[in-house]
From TrEMBL:
NCBIfam families: birA_ligase
CC terms in the record's Gene Ontology section: cytoplasm
Highest taxon listed in the record's lineage: Eukaryota
InterPro entries reported in the protein's UniProt record: aa-tRNA-synth_II/BPL/LPL, Biotin_CoA_COase_ligase, BPL_C, BPL_LPL_catalytic
Coiled coil: none
Assigned protein family: Belongs to the biotin--protein ligase family.
Gene3D superfamilies listed in its UniProt record: Bira Bifunctional Protein, Domain 2
SUPFAM superfamilies, per the entry: Class II aaRS and biotin synthetases
Name of the molecule in the record: BPL/LPL catalytic domain-containing protein
Keyword annotations from UniProtKB, A to Z: Ligase
Length: 372
């Protein structure tokens, strides 16, 4: 069976806690009020049952969906009730802005990733679904929600993610720990290439979506999406849940892909289904390269897409004799073999830069580690 074969040949990831959010206010006084409203809203949402629709691309994957539903073994966070259906049991899309499974499946060309789908019009978090049910799902399974009311953010923050955003999480595994930190870069690269590919395919100028290290996506200087990854390590295998968030139609609080297309006087609108299928096509190809050849064949394309080559940044250093850290300016050169930033000081010393928790904003909060 395809699932079992891929479990032994495709494996992935480390706990990487940088993430995306879609409704975080810009000012502290607004933040306090909005957080209270969001918490109350999430509590009300959690009292409503959650509908989860299962489907697969092949007949064997559809049969697996039937078995999963009949066994009623899928888990969700404790305070939420779950109702599970097969896609074949559902009537036609009740709302035009719902994710269309048929449209997505018809354009998907992968052999592993994205072929088994769990879709919901509203979920606490796609990341929770794949994490809680990781070992019950085929590797490469994807969970997609039209709306999240307990989405995960940095430092255990929770966020409401409204309609108009592409919200998905998928499962993967990896054995080679040296490649693990690089997978988040492959995810970012696959998404930027997917958006570019769709633009070219439809005869419009490619949107200049860029990567802000380590896992944010920017468009015209504004954040438009990002990545969240979590993992467990068991029996010499990393079990990874990868979350992706992308503002497709929702402009708040920054911008969206389609609003930028509108500024270009384009009548074409990017659809979540097309972005998702093209993303998985790209990701599967890039991931195969990473597994068999390492990251080097992808470096040139990655550096063309990220924001940082030659960027001057401030790093903080502190020793036991200092009360306050000293700050020094270095120049970014690329990535080290371990996946951190390679930089050079003004006196020619090579160093590796590590993000320093929540203080990291790419201008301060970086920690330097000297390289030989």
């Amino acid at each position: 069976m395809l699932f079992n074969t891929l479990r032994t040949s495709f494996h992935c990831f480390l706990p990487l806690h940088h993430s995306f959010s879609f409704t975080r206010p810009s000012y502290s006084n607004i933040f306090s009020r909005s957080l209270s409203v969001a918490t109350a809203s999430a509590n009300m949402e959690s009292q409503r049952p959650v509908v989860l629709v299962l489907s697969g691309k092949s007949e064997s994957e559809k049969e697996f969906a039937r078995s999963l539903k009949e066994n009623s073994t899928l888990k969700i966070i404790d305070d939420v009730k779950l109702q599970t259906y097969l896609h074949s049991e559902m009537e036609t899309q009740s709302e035009k802005d719902e994710f269309n499974i048929d449209t997505y499946m018809n354009s998907l060309e992968t052999k592993c990733f994205g072929r088994f789908i769990l879709w919901s019009p509203r979920l606490p978090s796609t990341q929770d679904i794949v994490s809680l049910n990781f070992f019950q799902l085929p590797i490469g399974s994807v969970c997609i929600a039209d709306l999240q009311f307990k989405g995960r953010g940095r430092s255990q923050n929770t966020w409401e993610s409204p309609k108009g955003s592409l919200l998905l999480s998928f499962t993967m595994q990896m054995e080679n720990g040296q490649l693990v930190p690089l997978v988040q870069y492959v995810v970012c690269l696959a998404m930027t290439e997917a958006i570019k590919n769709l633009s070219i395919r439809n005869g419009i100028p490619p949107l200049d979506v860029r990567i802000k290290w380590p896992n944010d996506l920017y468009l015209n200087g504004l954040k438009v999406g990002g990545i969240l990854c979590g993992s467990t390590y068991q029996s010499k295998i990393f079990n990874i849940s990868v979350g992706v968030g992308l503002n497709v139609d929702n402009d708040k609080p920054t911008t969206s892909l389609n609003s930028e297309l509108q500024k270009l006087n384009s009548d074409y609108k990017l659809q979540r289904e097309d972005i998702t299928s093209t993303f998985f096509d790209k990701f599967e190809h890039f991931f195969h390269i990473l597994i068999h050849q390492g990251f080097q064949p992808l470096e040139e394309l990655y550096y063309k897409t990220w924001l940082h080559s030659g960027q001057r940044v401030i790093v903080q250093e502190k020793n036991q004799e200092q009360d306050l850290p000293t700050e020094n300016v270095v120049t970014v050169q690329g990535l080290t073999s371990s996946g951190y930033l390679l930089a050079i000081t003004d006196n020619g010393e090579r160093c590796e830069l590590h993000p320093d928790g929540n203080s990291f904003d790419f201008f301060k909060g970086l920690v330097r580690s000297k390289l030989a």
